[in-house]
Amino acid sequence: MRPKILVTREVFDETLEYLREHCDVDANQEDMALAPDALMKRLADKEGVICSLTDRIDAALLERCPKLKVVANIAVGYNNIDVPACSARGIMATNTPGVLDDSTADLAWTLMLGAARRITEVERYVRNGEWKGWRLKQWLGIDVHHATLGIIGMGRIGQAIARRAAGFDMRVLYHNRKRVDEEIERKLNTRWVSLDELLGKSDFVVLQVPYSPETHHLIGAAQLSKMKRNAILINSTRGGVVDDQALISALRNGTIRAAGLDVFENEPKLNPAFLDLDNVVLAPHIGSSTEATRCAMAMTAAKNAVAVLIGSTPPNLINAEAIRS
Predict the structure, then answer these.
(1) Choosing from 9, 22, 238, 294, which is the catalytic residue?
(2) Catalytic: which of 9, 118, 285, 294?
(3) Are residues 122 and 232 located together in one domain of the fold?
(4) Burial bucket for residue 137 (CB in 10 Å: 0-12, 13-18, 19+)
(5) What is the pLDDT of residue 258?
(6) Are residues 131 and 245 in the same domain?
(7) In angstroms, rounded to a whole number, what is the distance separating the alpha carbons of residues 302 and 240?
(8) Do 131 and 233 sit in the same domain of this protein?
(9) Which of 47, 175, 267, 294 is catalytic?
(10) Does residue 20 have an active-site annotation?
(11) Alpha-carbon span 204 to 149, nearest angstrom
């Protein structure tokens, strides 16, 4: 008997074709997020689920899904999944690392360059028909080249961001819970510093850490006050890593120059005060949103799920303890 799997949000046709080779597929191709009760009802008789970061896979849901063997997240982060609850039930949880590193790094640079050169402001200026001619001091931004870049979180994406800095002749500092290998530091021409030193010396601060209780409001009012007044903060990792209200106050008061944000607390219900600020570039959580990358993410999640359902260990298992349960 073929295993049953639920796909909670719209995916690509090739992803469904692959899944249908191995499973009976229930796919929510209308791409409307399932309410908790609807998700629970559709998942009750399934052995697998391919979910997104908008789906909360918690203990209450798992309790109602006795056949479930695998939760395959289409994302690198997995704070939407109660991993200990999965492990306690012998349910394997997986993510999609690696395939989105470069696209997400590109987006961080897009925000950095856009904020430095005030791109969203000047585009509105042109579209509104306000441009009447050239002036020497018109729309002055700041240089990215030869500036100091501080990266908080030197995992795969952080390293991809650092590699791109070489083309701008930037000095690169980083802060991580532990230093990366010296060989990586040499290749990236970077050095580890304390968080306070990074904040105080960097012209651009880019966040690339996972969200967890330990990183909740990692950047708040105290940390923002340690940054240069001309500095720019980039958050392209997860909402909640930054205290959004503290950031709004810092942008209003000139504590820092500007920000570029792809993620927010309580998204998509971002703090409306952001919309009143000119010195922030806003994007709707599109860090990995290129056709090739999102397709690769969906296929990676599908292969993770199928591996479990045919009795193998998935390549991107995040809770090895589930195997021993």
Answers:
(1) 238
(2) 285
(3) yes
(4) exposed
(5) 98
(6) yes
(7) 28
(8) yes
(9) 267
(10) no
(11) 5
CATH code assigned at 147: 3.40.50.720
Q: What six digits make up the tokens of 4?
A: 């049953």
The per-residue b/e assignment along 1-37, b for 16 or more CB within 10 angstroms, e otherwise, is eebbbbbbbebbeebbebbeebbebebbeeeeebeee
Which token pair is 97? 């690392």
89 catalytic, yes or no? no
Residues of the domain holding 225 = 101-282
The pLDDT of residue 32 is 86
Determine the pLDDT at residue 291: 96
Give the tokens for residue 169. Answer: 């002749």
Number of domain units in the chain:
2
**Mean pLDDT for back-to-back runs of 10 residues, the chain (325 residues):** 96 97 95 91 97 94 96 94 97 96 98 98 97 96 98 97 98 96 97 98 97 95 98 96 98 98 95 98 97 97 98 96 79
Rounded to 10 deg, the angle between the 291-309 and 101-116 helix axes is 150
277, 309: one domain: no
Three-class SS of residue 199?
Answer: helix
Q: Which among 90, 36, 77, 26 is positioned nearest to 58, based on CA atoms?
A: 36
Q: Is 17 a catalytic residue?
A: no
